[in-house]
Amino acid sequence: MKSRHLPLLPRHFSSTGVALVLLAAISWTLPAQALPSYAKQTGQACAACHEGSLGPQLTQEGRNFKLLGYAGGSGFFPLSGQTIVQFTNTNQGQEGGAAPHFGDNHNTAVNETSLFYAGRIAPNVGAFIQGTYDGVARSFALDHTDIRFARAAALLGKDVVYGLSLNNNPMVQDLYNTTPVWRYPYTSSGLAPAPFAATQLEGGLEHQVAGLTAYTMIDDLLYLEGGAYKGMGRQLRQNLGEDNEDKLSGLAPYWRLALQKNIGKSFFHVGSFGMHDALYPGYDRSFGRNRYTDYGFDGSWQYTPSKRHHLSLYVADIYERQNLEAAFGAGEASTRKQFLNSFNASSSYYYAGTYGATFGVFSTNGTTDSVRNPAGDIDGSASGSPNSNGYILQADWTPFGKKESWLFPYANVRFAAQYTHYLHFNGGAADYNGDGRNANKNDTFLLFAWLAY
Amino acid sequence: MRAPILIASLLIASSSLAAHAAGDAQRGAEVFDNECSDCHTATAKGGNGKGPALFGIVGRNAGSVAGYDYSDANKASHFVWTAEQLEAYLPNPKGAMPGTKMRYSGVKDAAERADVIAFLQSLK
Prior knowledge:
With 453 residues, chain A is mainly beta. Chain A has helices at residues 16-28, 37-42, 46-49, 60-67, 234-239, 325-329; strands at residues 79-90, 107-122, 125-134, 139-155, 158-167, 209-218, 222-231, 246-248, 251-263, 266-281, 290-306, 309-324, 337-351, 355-366, 388-397, 412-424, 444-452. Chain A contains six helices and 17 strands. A 16-stranded antiparallel β-barrel of chain A has the order 1-2-3-4-5-6-7-9-10-11-12-13-14-15-16-17.
């Protein structure tokens, strides 16, 4: 299984207060050439496309902009940047440091700094290409990438959008905020423990593959998408700064369908998605492949009676069938056939696109296997179970991002507090790892400032 | 036989006009702000945004604002933006003009539609 531990962050600042003040100072002094490129291209405020005026949570307008290939609007300045500064406090520290160069607890770090090509490339062609310096791992890599061609047309008297997406991460191209790449929480601590179990669609092939999918939206009602992913070469992945853990065998087919409808001031969608992939773990072909098939089901509701009120609800479940031929053959799993299920739901409310509160729950459960999931350190599982669950609360303030905002459309910022509570972590509540650590010792209080420019 | 039909037609037409006349331009300005202003301007000096400028739209031919790159569907529609045409278009723009760039789902509420049409009529 892939580790879901997020990167850890160094002590760049002596206190969170200093970090936030510095960030605020930076935001006041941004040079004019540092533009949020989509806003510049469309002439729209961040709030038009994003609930809460910042972050990946899309409005109908935002989904349509993405659907049409990031190519709408008449402006052109496709470069943007982003910086996220975090302060992380866990209920109990992590002995030996939350990450190299960091302390056991109470860590402040510039979690990530990104540069984007984000906007039109040509008529009907646009891109979202992110390169990120990870301030915890202290490395640079090609991050989310989605290059699109799209057109709107009339077919048999119906409105039809059709397009292609070339991307490096299954579901990065998805329109809805229910699926792993763009779901809540929209940013997490880079220095807090996280459960080890995750399905393949939750980052298993992230940035290690190249995929081409074709999609269509028919009559603003039915969305269909299909395509496949292929593993990038080892050298290419190294050049792009990505991990080289496993080799994808052959093509990984991917599918997505959704029904959506606007009724009054509400938007609804229900859908399904999935992928099948087979991996040679560690590039070792001695014992065959581990095969995974993910089936996802999701739905959302957004209620926007006016610009003052935005209420959203997102739900998704991913069930993964695993055939661990390679792991079993290598003695790293006790049974071949296993499963993993991941459930996520969240609801948010934003007032005036400025003040927001979000509540989310998560639950992962799967096959108990002490060989595959041994007891140990913070990562360990005394029971061999991958089961984890809990909730995440967030309150945030996004003072800019509207047309009347100061510095529009040059900069935007969000300040937020987030709390994660684990009811179970890696299979247990008390002494989950066999080393005396309780699940709630990984509870995390996170303060962050998210600057877009 | 023709007189009753004529009278009925006039009654229908007048009730339609009355529905438009019943729109409140002031409330329509609020609807415009909530639903349209992200993409359109409504002032004489307002330029094109993601959508074309809407000042003076009522009575105008579709696809006629200088400097705006309209979709083929819009240019081929030959719509004239009368109040009646707006009433037919606004509940579901993509249904009324398949292939349009405007992906907006529409003003579903009849009263809000009447208000925003009244507001658009006042832009001259």
